[in-house]
């Protein structure tokens, strides 16, 4: 088989014939993407999904700890710092996590996955060790935010890219299964932290998490592999020319807004619950509930996306997140049932913000250049999140001049607006690609 044909995924221009040329609504882009060259299964392809799962397990799973870590640091090591200041630690982690993709993506295309996985695995483990002994603000920034974020990027980006090499028609399902690692990681990590931090202390709790990370990352190191051979001749240069494509730019903006909505939820919902009467173990369990429902929210929409269209499903789930934010969270107050119900529902419907983001970018990219293009998207996400989390913190601070933060309406509005923005740009990206008919599969 000609390897040049294996990676010949169509671009938007190739994949978006006019309505007159393509009248069958069930026809999807994958039909013109040389689907016969993709394995779509088999033990080797599913081992790659396992490797991606083990890579996403720590890199995405740790994000579910942000709210709990922020509360802990505010009460202990960084007592006296405002939550807005402490949030910069996690905002910078996310910044370097996503920013690294702009260079890591091209390196993946040119040199393959293991070239990045080895330093990434070592760096993530060392970062957790540094976190366990940090006491000063700058130590958290250097050891956790910078080292941890860049190392996680070197692990996550190849995991997302490798799946696109092995799956096309089933790409949504395969990516959805792999990203359940983040949800399961969230359940395990929040419970480990919630149970052990008060029993054995913060340092050893973080070290135990670090050992769990290392075991998982070793599996990904052994199983993650690209199907197409590395192409050193393509170079490892940053690719920003993709931003000249309106559809690519609008898609990137859409998934960035969806990510902002999700990160605001993960970071601030635990503190919202605690300030509204959810205390003790139940406050930790809220993130477990959200993580548990997000597992189904990554697999089921991923499966449906392969049938109904990736952009269509992403739009629908973001629209529901907008409704839940303005409708249920905004009116929850101290109603325990509503707080728990929102955690369960938003966990499910926000799941595709993780699982379908790489799939949507892959749909408008060629496989051999996917690393560069996905890296460009998540690098843009890095700058957006660098600002978004502190802005959310300042909104919260501005509405609560006292010592107790109980007014969250501005923060909730910010979260809902982010999801609404995602809907808008997904709608525009689809319209510019295949027309404005709602029933068009895309």
TrEMBL record:
The keyword Methyltransferase does not apply. PROSITE patterns: MFS. Keywords: Membrane, Transmembrane, Transmembrane helix. It comes from the Eukaryota. It is found in: Membrane. One of its GO terms (cellular component) is membrane. It is a multi-pass membrane protein. PANTHER family: MONOCARBOXYLATE TRANSPORTER, MONOCARBOXYLATE TRANSPORTER (EUROFUNG)-RELATED. This is Uncharacterized protein. It comes from Aspergillus kawachii. The lineage of its organism: Eukaryota, Fungi, Dikarya, Ascomycota, Pezizomycotina.
């Amino acid at each position: 088989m000609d390897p040049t044909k294996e990676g010949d995924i169509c671009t938007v221009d190739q994949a978006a014939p006019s309505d007159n040329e393509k009248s069958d609504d069930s026809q999807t882009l994958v039909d013109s993407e040389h689907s016969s060259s993709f394995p779509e299964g088999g033990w080797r392809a599913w081992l790659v999904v396992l490797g991606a799962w083990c890579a996403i397990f720590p890199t995405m799973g740790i994000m579910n700890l942000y709210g709990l870590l922020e509360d802990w640091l505010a009460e202990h090591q960084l007592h006296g710092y405002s939550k807005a200041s402490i949030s910069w630690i996690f905002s910078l982690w996310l910044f370097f996590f996503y920013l690294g993709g702009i260079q890591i993506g091209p390196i993946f295309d040119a040199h393959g996955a293991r070239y990045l996985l080895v330093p990434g695995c070592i760096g993530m483990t060392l970062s957790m060790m540094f976190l366990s002994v940090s006491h000063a603000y700058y130590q958290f920034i250097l050891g956790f935010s910078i080292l941890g974020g860049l190392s996680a990027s070197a692990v996550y980006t190849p995991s997302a890219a490798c799946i696109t090499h092995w799956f096309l028609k089933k790409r949504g399902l395969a990516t959805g299964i792999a990203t359940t690692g983040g949800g399961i990681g969230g359940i395990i990590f929040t419970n480990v932290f919630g149970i052990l931090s008060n029993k054995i202390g913060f340092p050893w709790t973080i070290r135990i998490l670090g050992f769990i990370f290392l075991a998982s990352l070793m599996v990904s190191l052994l199983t993650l592999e690209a199907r197409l051979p590395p192409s050193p001749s393509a170079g490892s240069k940053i690719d920003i020319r993709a931003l000249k494509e309106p559809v690519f730019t609008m898609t990137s903006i859409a998934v960035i807004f969806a990510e902002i909505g999700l990160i605001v939820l993960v970071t601030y919902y635990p503190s919202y619950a605690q300030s509204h009467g959810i205390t003790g173990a139940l406050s930790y369990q809220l993130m477990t509930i959200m993580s548990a429902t997000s597992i189904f929210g990554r697999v089921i929409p991923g499966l449906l996306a392969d049938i109904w269209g990736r952009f269509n499903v992403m739009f629908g789930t973001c629209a529901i997140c907008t409704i839940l934010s303005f409708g249920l969270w905004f009116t929850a107050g101290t109603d325990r049932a509503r707080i728990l119900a929102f955690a369960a529902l938003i966990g499910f419907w926000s799941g595709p913000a993780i699982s379908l983001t790489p799939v949507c970018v892959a749909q408008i990219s060629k496989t051999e250049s996917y690393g560069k293009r996905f890296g460009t998207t998540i690098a843009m996400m890095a700058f957006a999140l660098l600002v978004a989390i502190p802005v959310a913190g300042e909104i919260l601070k501005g509405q609560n001049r006292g010592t107790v933060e109980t007014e969250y309406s501005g923060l909730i509005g910010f979260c809902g607006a982010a999801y609404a923005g995602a809907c808008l740009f997904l709608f525009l990206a689809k319209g510019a690609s295949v027309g404005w008919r709602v029933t068009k599969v895309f």
